[in-house]
Write a structure and sequence with these properties.
heterodimer, A: 258 residues, 0% strand, B: 251 residues, alpha/beta, 34% helix, globular
Amino acid sequence: MKNIFAVAGVVIKELYRRKDFYVLFIVTIVLCLVMASVNIFNDDKIVRYLKEICLLLVWLSSLVIAITTTARQIPAERENRTLLPLLAKPLSRTQLILGKFFGCWFACGLTLLCFYVFFAALAASREHQLPVLDYVQAATLHWFMLGIVVAIALLGSLVFAAPSSNSTICFVVVGGIMLVGRHLDQVALTLNEPMRGITQVIYFIIPHLEIFDVRDLIIHNWPLIHWNFFGLALVYALVYTTVFLTGACLVFRRKPVN
Amino acid sequence: MATILKADKLRVEYRSREMRQATKVALAGLDLEVHAGEVFGFLGPNGAGKTTTMNVLLGFVQPTTGAASLFGIDVRQPIARQRIGYLPELTYYYKFLTAEELLRFYAKIFGLARGEADKRIDTLLKLVELEHARKRPIKSYSKGMQQRVGLAQALINNPDLLILDEPTSGLDPLGRMKVREIIQRLKNEGKTVFFSSHELGEVETVCDRIAIIHQGELKVIGRVDEIRKPRHANLEQAFLEIIGFQAQLNP
């Protein structure tokens, strides 16, 4: 485990020494503060719109950070040839992949913490209430969803040589799942065979990232998710993360590093 | 004398992805043994198979046939790399880390305790003369400084075997002299050094034994004098003769 966490530590250092996170965080803060300072149409429920836009920015920023940070990890190691001295140490390829995964995932967790603390402070300043458990549930589900995304991007970085093509494909796949994933079974019913069967298979195979999106819960102050369902969702995320990570380890094990 | 590094009939073939392209044989049954305490020079023209041999020894490339071991352990086992240090040719280390952080990272992988790692880092930064720049990010280092960081990382675990791939490549004369001094110092400490180089004068100065390979085949192995004297030539002339360059000039 020490090797895995040593690699993860370097990934986290990289994230907080680069400007990506700071730029996205500051842009989110500025946009939200500007919106919070005005009260359009004297709507007393305007805070809901503010929360919705703020959460949308948090989701977009977290996806950008997760995908771009992960997509460049292995290609950058290969390009700068740092992979050679690293693998010449008593570090297995599986440990390297796991280290990169945990580094990116923990880094995403830290950025989410910053975003959600800001969001909670902003919402509390307007609503005069702080539903901590709602925020904990939303942020945890969000973080576990990012675990799946990080694992997909890591696998992609071993299959596609260029980080830019990997990032683009990951954004399309993740965006596609979030937007149309839940409707695929209904789409399948409108199709003829064999497309119906194929679409249904896709529906059952893809990780349904949309189930982790509980923004409405905190926008409309709905009651908490039942903890059993919450736990099941986390297990669901862990299963998919493990599947993609296993794929990444298998691909990397067979890949020549020279 | 104990055998530290052994290659047994190593054969590496690279299959081309394109149809009708022939398979390239990078190594054709290489046999090699390096003994404890030796400084061993591994020579050959570009494309001879030196880096491929090192890649197999470090577990980066699987041999098509044959086997290789370090300290008697199969190179495919990560533990075989516990007692080695490796300096690749022209590496750009993590630019966002300082030299001290980089060495601490590698020390963690070797499982060095914090106190021991601190001592090793201080000693090595002094050895490679980077103490003044230890807190500066590596992105601000010159090429020579980066190569010296590389040498420090190769020594972080106080290795018994050091594998250096063209360690003086791209360095100025002063940098080369310092690398030579470090190799000499390691030799005096009883370490085994296995290195490839195109600097034949340097090889002549520091090596106990050398091997010359060409087109993936071992052409000659032995002490520098044993190779040089029968040909009544210096090492450079002997090298050219062995790889068949003279024959091409004067058929």
